[in-house]
Structure formats: C-alpha cells, structure tokens
Specification:
The protein is of the alpha+beta class. It has five helices and eight strands; from the N terminus they run H-H-H-H-E-E-E-E-H-E-E-E-E. Helix 3 crosses helix 4 and helix 3 crosses helix 5.
Length: 199
C-alpha cells in the first residue's frame, strides 16, 4: 500500500501541480497572493521542518482546489450501486439496478458555481467547500493518498511561486486523459529569494 501511494499517484500529482502552475501563470494577481503567503510561511530553503506550517498557505490551497475543479486528475470514476437506485431528473428518471456498472464524468460544477470556466481561487474562501466536489472519489474507495498528494502539491506550488515569477510561454495547451500537453512556462527567478541566494 505504501508503494502504491508513493508511486501510483506520481503522475496525477504532477499533473495537478502542472495545471495549477499553468493557471497561476495566467493570473498574476493570484500568483502574487500565493507568493506573498509562501514568502512568509516558507522562509527556509526547501520544505518547512513542520508540515503543519503548510496550513498557512490558504491561497495556495485555494488555487490547487480550483485547478482540481477545472481539471480533475481523474475525470472518470466508476461506481456500482449496492441496491436498486432511481435517480430523479428533470423530465426523466434513471433506474439503476444493484450491481450495475456506471461511469461518471466529473464536471467542473457548471450548475453549482458562477462562471464555471474561469479560474477563481477566491471562491474557495466562501461556500464552495459545501458544493459536491469529489476529485479523490468518495466512500470506501476514497483515494488513500489524497493527503500526501495535496501536501506535495501545496509545497511545490508554494515554493515555485515564492522563488519564481511564472508567465505563459505561448503555444497551445491541450489535454490528454486529464494530463496537460504542450504546457510550457517561463519562470524568472525572483531577486532576493531564498533560492536566488543559493544559486
């Protein structure tokens, strides 16, 4: 299980980090909030001695959650109802017998949030956490590595924005099975950062 958490989740975690940095590169205001926050919380070169310090990276966490909403790392999830279930819709009902295999495509919340196609991390400071949001699954099949993935992503995104000014590098960004394609950034080392003093 430890091997699974350490290795099986590396592609999805790196995809989450890449998408988050991509969105932040196109949103200088949010990137600056993440940078200022990280400069305060992550004063040392590298990870903090106490992982609990990462809880102070609220803007970083909001950017990651918003990236997960827009680009879920696992866009398709399989489910099987344990008992006969009827889903009531507008003008129709969907009957699902027990054991029926179904695939759910994760949505970016078009019906739950305003301007769903826009990257707006600040929405996570309001009531967004109450909306249906399952990027790591739910129930007994909930991803056992979700805490590690979020910890890694928060640390990497925070350190990247603390030490670098990120900008898009042009080109067309695509997506293949939730993974970014053609995603390139122009990182410029910030003067006076902890990283700059060691290069």
């Amino acid at each position: 299980m430890v091997l699974t958490m350490m290795l099986a989740g590396q592609d999805t975690t790196s995809s989450l980090i890449a998408w988050t940095l991509h969105h932040l590169a196109g949103d200088p205001d949010t990137q600056e909030r993440v940078r200022a926050e990280a400069a305060t919380v992550l004063r040392e070169f590298g990870p903090p001695a106490d992982p609990a310090a990462l809880r102070g990276l609220r803007h970083t966490d909001a950017a990651i959650q918003e990236s997960l909403r827009l680009r879920p790392v696992v866009p398709v999830m399989g489910f099987r109802p344990t008992r006969h279930t009827v889903l009531h819709g507008t003008g129709y009902d969907l009957s699902l017998p027990a054991g029926q295999s179904i695939l759910l495509l994760l949505s970016h919340g078009a019906r739950a949030v305003p301007d769903p196609d826009e990257f707006r991390p600040r929405r996570w400071f309001g009531t967004m956490t109450a909306q249906p949001f399952f990027p790591f699954g739910a129930g007994p099949r909930f991803c056992p590595g979700h805490n590690l993935a979020l910890l890694e992503a928060t640390l990497v995104v925070g350190l990247a924005c603390r030490d670098f000014q990120l900008a898009p590098d042009g080109g067309k960004v695509g997506e293949k099975l939730a993974f970014p394609t053609g995603l390139r950034l122009r990182p410029q080392l910030r003067p006076g950062t902890a990283g700059a003093t060691r290069r």
